[in-house]
Amino acid sequence: MQESGHGMIVYRSMDRQTLDAAYNNSAAVADSDQYLADWLRRSEALRVRMPDHLNLVYGDAPRARLDFFTATRSDAPTLLFFHGGYWQRNAKEGFSFVAEGPLAQGFNVAVAGYTLAPEATMDGIVREARISLHWLHQRLSTLGGDPARLYVGGWSAGGHLTAMLMDEPLVAGGLAISGLFDLNDKLGLDAEQARRNSPLLNLPASAAKLIIAYGAAELPELQRQSREFGAAWTAHGLPGEMIEVADCHHYAVLEQLAQSDGLLARALTVAVGVDPG
User: Fold this and answer.
1) E-assigned strands of 186-266?
2) By three-state DSSP, how is residue 140 classified?
3) d(C-alpha 47, C-alpha 40), whole Å
4) What counts of helices (H) and strands (E) characterise the chain?
């Protein structure tokens, strides 16, 4: 293993200190705490307004729950959303606010929880995401959704989970925001676990359209991850769209899905062909 000026190279010519800084969005965005607090307030307000389908149990683990927010029309398309937090932090309850944008565009929205690392391995987290997808698909008709129009989306670590689920025939399309697609050993992954959980290295033979989005003001490594994955996706002959969102850092870019007229909420609607009504 090579050495840099600081220490041993652990990933793409970066030592541990450089690697940590390259993915430290909390440090890169000075007001990240205010974003998370505002998201929690908005999420709590939405949960009060729409309490009918909260904490639906899709699996055995305590966090294997999802919240389902229903559009005004029956047989609407549904977005299954996975939150971020580097697979180690946050909870679905702080991300209900994301539903407001897609709801305004005519979508049902399910926000899924999942077991965090290190309690769960990366293999286990991806497995839970797949279980939540299949569980929701089986129940969409009862909940008022169209099972043929089930979309997946996520932000940061949730963008990774979105990409991992694109090989599922149940998925009608995806939106991966600021995702990680070429995993390093930040979570203590061995080489084989990192390889099999890296979407960049496991492109599906066929898939529905995937929108890959990131903020133009994000950390360079986050931008690189999306650009390289997007290039590989289309080079593999898969349907996709790349969106660089101007003037947005890692937290602001998610607002473009959460806001009713946000760029990503509208892009999702156009890709799906939904009339918000």
Assistant:
1) 210-215, 240-245
2) helix
3) 10
4) 10, 10
The one-character DSSP state at 72 is: S
Q: Is 50 exposed, middle or buried (0-12, 13-18, 19+ CB in 10 A)?
A: middle
Q: Which amino acid is at 114?
A: Y
Residue 198, judged by CB atoms within 10 A of its CB (0-12, 13-18, 19+), counts as buried
pLDDT in tens, the chain (277 residues): 344 444 676 677 677 776 777 777 666 676 778 999 999 999 999 999 999 999 999 999 999 999 999 998 888 999 999 999 999 999 999 999 999 999 999 999 999 999 999 999 999 999 999 999 999 999 999 999 999 999 999 999 999 999 999 999 999 999 999 999 999 766 778 889 999 999 999 999 999 999 999 999 998 989 999 999 999 999 999 999 999 999 999 999 999 999 999 999 999 999 877 665 5
Q: Cα angle at 113 between 276 and 90, to 5 degrees?
A: 105
Pairing between β-strand 65-69 and β-strand 108-112 as defined by DSSP bridges: antiparallel
Please identify which residue in the block is written with the tokens 């979105």: 162
